Amino acid sequence: MSKKITIAIDAMGGDNSPQKVIEGINLHNKNSNNIFYKIFGDSNKIKKFISKNLSTDKYELIDCRDEVKGTDSALSAAKRGKETSMWLSIDSVKNKQSDIVISAGNTGALFVIAKLNLNMIENINKPALSGLWPNKTGTNIVLDLGANVECDEKNLVDFSLMGSALFKALFPNETPKVALLNIGSEEIKGNEIIKNTYKKLNNQNNKIFDFKGYIEGNEMMKGDVNVIVTDGFTGNIALKTAEGTANFITSELKKAMTGNFVGKLSSLLNIKNLNKFKKRFDPRLYNGAILLGLDSPVVKSHGSTDFVGFANSLTLCEKIVSGNLIDKIKQSID
Fold first, then answer.
1. Tens digits of per-residue pLDDT, 72-90?
2. Which CATH class is domain 125-286?
3. 312 vs 131: CA distance, rounded Å
4. Bridging pattern class, strands 289-292 and 128-134
5. CATH, domain range 1-120+293-323
6. Which of 184, 241, 280, 317 is deepest in the core (most CB within 10 A)?
7. How far apart are CA 172 and CA 14, in angstroms?
8. Same topology for domains 1-120+293-323 and 125-286, yes or no?
9. Domain residues of the chain, as ranges?
10. Which helix (H) or strand (E) is 171 found in, with range?
11. What are the start-end ranges of the H helices in 217-259?
12. Cα 109 from Cα 74, distance rounded (Å)
């Protein structure tokens, strides 16, 4: 039997917490037999949502006096003290009592508190926020999504290595194919940092990933590559644009299919295909961004997701630990 995985969970962050967090744990537990949940938060609020099917040997509830608010600045959240559920859950990973930490709470606070408590992996200068995006053939890893507004060539090379390690941890039977997000596919396109990074990656002789050059924004979903690298400024804009476009398409499609009798009839006739479309682009399936570069894995669940999305982010945590992500990053950097 494989080693039991311990997940430290900040139960107080995000919309409708702790209910959605605990219900997510209940759902995840139905399909996972080798997980121990260390739940940090207000025990009085949490206890009423814990399922009777979640036996006491599957979890530990750590009562916390305080919590990080969504309205807190990153600095004020860090100053709030060491009694918050977010701080204590990260501290659990720092002290090797847990294998990974997850929170749906304040993003800026999570980054700052994680960086205060956890060391960077040797030779990594900056952490990167990476996310999962669907493509035609499977899944993309995209980074950085906002942790660093400015990056140099070394940062982007490091992101390529870390993103590839994450992809390999999640999809061990597939080969990471790396591309740099740029305004064109020709070598001469882009700023000096992008062009210098291209040269470095193109000249690297490594067995970690295949370098595929540049990729433009309109090709990100084609599936020709699966690790897309950029700075945090560009990556965050790309992320928000993709989310907005997906929401627009699904809402307009819903309107068209329910607005009149013909639309309703058409939707009934195409119900199977519509459900397939809805499931393929359901953001809950891709919930969970990973802060890479720290010596322990930190996962950020989307604050507005529901319990199904949170359960999926727990599955992501499980895959990250069982795939030995941190060891893979260290080997890649070496």
1. 888 888 888 789 999 999 9
2. alpha beta
3. 13
4. antiparallel
5. 3.40.718.10
6. 317
7. 31
8. yes
9. 1-120+293-323, 125-286
10. none
11. 232-258
12. 4
